[in-house]
Design goal:
single chain, 239 residues, 11 strands, alpha/beta
């Protein structure tokens, strides 16, 4: 039976909308994935087939229509392990699941590298910088990955799901047209990075400079209309 795997925390609003829009949704948190999830691979020399074990139930990879991968960076192994063991288990599990999700044959939003898990600021800075360069936009980033503008600078956010762009800011109307006209460049960047869903923070007072790009955006305070629209786009991308 076809299924859509949704990996996100229980309170994630986008995951809740997407789970209600797709058929055969399987909801899993990062903690559940790392603590109880399993994988079995079958190799015959030329092909590989796999089965995920979720909540004790096997799900063949070919059954998956798509995967929404919005994990948390807060997961930690059990406290019963020593500090070094916990660090080892954490990094190895995260790297393994990044590789598994990245290799899945179905659509995935997003295919995150291990750099994201360890909150590598250089990865965040490079992601924003490469996005700006690909779309011929300025960027204002420090080497630490934070905003180079002042703390009181006005920030406007643009969301994208594949080639679809969303914003609630009238200020970004002209920029939205520019990004839409750069659809081939955006698609090229998405293929190179594995990021098809993100929030981009921009600084209108600095020529719409890219200040930050979040591949696991929090939508806790997003307007309901924006959230529902994104949910429909994500569900369509994973169908």
């Amino acid at each position: 039976m076809p299924a859509t795997l949704v990996i996100a925390e229980a309170g994630d609003r986008l995951a809740r909308y997407v789970g209600g829009m797709v058929s055969g949704a399987i909801r899993y948190s990062s903690r559940e994935l790392f603590s109880t999830g399993g994988l079995a691979l079958t190799l015959n020399g030329t092909q590989a087939a796999g089965t995920l074990v979720l909540a004790g139930e096997p799900v063949a990879l070919e059954q998956l229509n798509g995967v929404l991968f919005l994990p948390t960076q807060r997961w930690r192994p059990p406290a019963s392990l020593g500090a070094r063991q916990r660090a080892f288990v954490r990094h190895e599990l995260q790297a393994a699941w990044c590789a598994i999700v990245a290799a899945m044959p179905c659509p995935v939003l997003n295919r995150l590298p291990p750099d994201w898990w360890i909150n590598d600021r250089l990865y965040a800075a490079d992601l924003a910088r490469s996005f700006a360069r690909q779309l011929a936009l300025p960027h204002r980033m420090s080497m630490s990955g934070g905003m180079a503008a002042s703390a009181d600078a006005k920030v406007c956010s643009l969301y994208f799901v594949g080639s679809d762009l969303l914003t609630t800011s009238p200020t970004l109307a002209a920029l939205k047209d520019h990004v839409s006209a750069s659809a081939p460049q955006l698609a090229r960047w998405q293929r190179a990075t594995g990021i098809g869903l993100a929030r981009v923070d921009l600084l209108p007072e600095h020529g719409f400079a890219v200040a930050h790009l979040d591949p696991v955006p929090s939508l806790a305070h997003a307007p309901r209309a924006l959230l529902k629209h994104m949910g429909r786009l994500v569900a369509g991308a994973l169908a």
